[in-house]
Model the fold of this input.
Amino acid sequence: KAGVTQTPRYLIKTRGQQVTLSCSPISGHRSVSWYQQTPGQGLQFLFEYFSETQRNKGNFPGRFSGRQFSNSRSEMNVSTLELGDSALYLCASSPVTPNTEAFFGQGTRLTVV
Amino acid sequence: AQKVTQAQTEISVVEKEDVTLDCVYETRDTTYYLFWYKQPPSGELVFLIRRNSFDEQNEISGRYSWNFQKSTSSFNFTITASQVVDSAVYFCALLAANNNNDMRFGAGTRLTVKP
Done:
């Protein structure tokens, strides 16, 4: 059974640009959650998608958005990038809800210069 | 408020020593879930264990064991006979049933096991 796949693994962008990250969950899993990991703030919840709908959202500005497709794959988008957006972005895959089990991908390391 | 505290920022041990990683949590919910994850240098968070608030039984899995005590709001993780491959950052996390699937992580404990 394949694990959670995140692409790309590494990304370098310039301030002001936008970026799209992708997450393919474990086959059969319908919930995808996104987290941002930085040295200063640690791991912080961005949002969670289930059946193509954003079910929950963390405390991040509107520049952070996402979506989920009918095959459960999810993308997150960050517009007007700031230096502080440099982080490891992790997605977690769950069958229905993270409280049963949540398996993470290897993350996308975004560097904003 | 939901909060997880991992007071130990870094721990260094010599191979074969036992080591305990501490985790203290705060929540007002009566239904919640606790997790431990391992993050090796590759970045992926590796799932180790999940516990719900109604199950206080301790668990052992090979060299790993977990001690869940609701009375002290702690969910500690012990590695017995540590190995170099155990070197990683370990995160404790809390997911309260009424917290919108927002998993709260502790700051992590960096464990270094020296040969």
Notes: Chain A touches chain B through 26 residues (CB under 8 Å). The longest strand of chain A covers residues 42-50.
